[in-house]
Amino acid sequence: MSTKPLHKYRLPVILFLLAAALTYCVQPPDYPDEPVIEFVGLSQNVMEQTTFGTDSVLITFNFTDGDGDLGFNDTSASIFIVDGRDSFQKPSYRIPYVEQQGAGNGISGTIGIVIPTTCCIYPVSSGIPPCDTSNNAPQAIDTVFYLISIKDRAGNRSNQIATAPITLVCRK
Length: 172
Hints:
By secondary structure, this protein is mainly β. Helices cover 11% and strands 29% of the residues. The protein has a single domain (29-169), classed as Immunoglobulin-like, CATH 2.60.40.
């Protein structure tokens, strides 16, 4: 019977445990094939209404996509934004083409989009059109929020998220 010191077995055991840990760490993520998005934040929560769009807000959200097929090679829209006050569709944005990578195509990341300021919407009874910046505006502020979703190349639409409220300054 051999009586080898136990410290000779320490290195192979450590290497085995390290290899097992690394194998576990590089498993591809298990995301659904449909994109999933989650609101992160706004760069500011107050914007000034202007007719020339000189103010804007950066909206940030996280995404995951199980098959990694985000973005198009052409100008197809992949980010859709709706004004939550009146369901008006804002101009769409596009995610740059993301090349699929091997068998484990799940991807995740963060997207930031800059939305220019929008108009205050006044009650119809006031007779004042949206975007009136004169002192005749019936209200000093308005509040807007946006509904956002994305679409992947397979046509899968994500969930829809709502931003936090943004205060619009209608008149100074």
